[in-house]
## 1
Amino acid sequence: MSFESGQAREFSLEQVGVLSRAMRKTGRPVVLVPLGRGLHAGHAALIRAARRIPRAVVVAAYSGTDRQLLVDEQVDAVVPYTQDDLWPRGLRTLVQPVDHYLEPVDAVAMQLTLEVTLLNLVGPSDVVVGEKDYEQMRALQAAITDLHLPVRLHGVPTVRMPDGLALSLRNTSVEESAREQALALSAALTAGAHAAEHGADTVLEVARSVLSDAHVTPDYLEIRGLDLGDAPETGDARLLVSAVVGGVRLTDNVGLPLGIGFRNIEG
């Protein structure tokens, strides 16, 4: 099987496992970037993060996805897939995550099963995912840990537009007339995070005020620990929000030093 780096050559699901094992024998295992449809600049950031790891970069993307971004980013290998390709007898086994009562657990489980399936097929040493879907990232890390998968997970910070709106397919589907309301989610997170030194109650009060001013009613607005358990009184935490804006359900999140504040972080 011939292979030339940076050419975004397509490999089938059967071929990519052979490639991965061959690369590992040469001392250059692969890093997987699992993607879906509709590639954008946020996905490019994931690929660039993967390229900083001394590995061959393999992108798994839904079949029919425009490959130009992958070519431009000099991906080493591309694995197109469909659900029928992955599960020709239908999906009979589901990887069930812990229900954190944020996103619908069935949707998290479906995506988690897809990601674990791709890990097993590709056989990478590393996998790169975005923090934009924070609960999904934590579910994948839990599966890697609990199932003893020989993979290291790397999270990449959310890529945002100049106005603060997170880059995602959902956000781009919001009509222009509802864009100001959509911006309220990231604005609320930013305002809340900058109140972190005053504690959780103040963070939530500030964030709720921003959402209320924009006439946005959140499905949830919560502070959790980094593992999505209870938030610490002092230390690293995550502020998460979801709301329906313009008929589209949006989610966003941000990290914050709860009870400390950004101004008081040494170094």
## 2
Amino acid sequence: KPLNSLGYRDNEPRNSRHVILFVGDSFTAGRGLKSIDERYSNIVGKELNKISDKYTVINIGKSGVDSLGEYNLMKQFSHMTKIKPEIIVLQYYGNDIEYVASEYGTKFEGFKTYKDVRHIFKPLIAGSYLLNYLYWSFPREHLSISYINFLDRSYKNKLILTKHKDELKLFIDYARDNSAQLIVIVFPFLNDVEMSDTMYVNEIADYFRDNKIRVINVSPLVRDIPVADRIVNKNDGHPSIKVNKIVALEILKYIHQ
């Protein structure tokens, strides 16, 4: 909560001369945070309007969408509301390549649940609310290995990466065509920054920089923070309140007041 009339976890969108539009997935929507006031988008809005109540911050973050989905939602939002943002803040995460990867031949076969449980006990755990709850109360790191390998293959595939960059170029062109400033936040997997940097963070950050887009690379901002303080909790890898605050401060540096 709140959930507005357009289905976004935000207040009702309000038009003004100075709109900052936050676009992304569950990281932007604030998954795992109890209040929207804890999100980096809302922190940015609050800090800006301490000085001058001229900025309108709108968040259209949507859980589960990839880059193309985010672009389509942004276009749909603009068409429905006639709101033209002055600044677009695009959030990027490692799974944004997933759809285009599946379209061009790299398939993820799915998570193999209960792989660490003896076969005889699987039906018992799966069929019991209590045992299932206890089982999932602890991180199951083995589940992520196959998915990480899938993403790694995708970013190493030149065709897939090229097609994915074509998707990202849509945001660059849209911002330029609409005289909007584009700021891109690149998040690593917060439980493994070094792996993320090698897999995709440096590649994606460099792509936007090469296109003269301002980039906030979250990796160096969180590298020295203990993992437990970076994420919502041990079973939820979304950014903590602390990380949201850090990201908000970086965004504020790029916004001309």
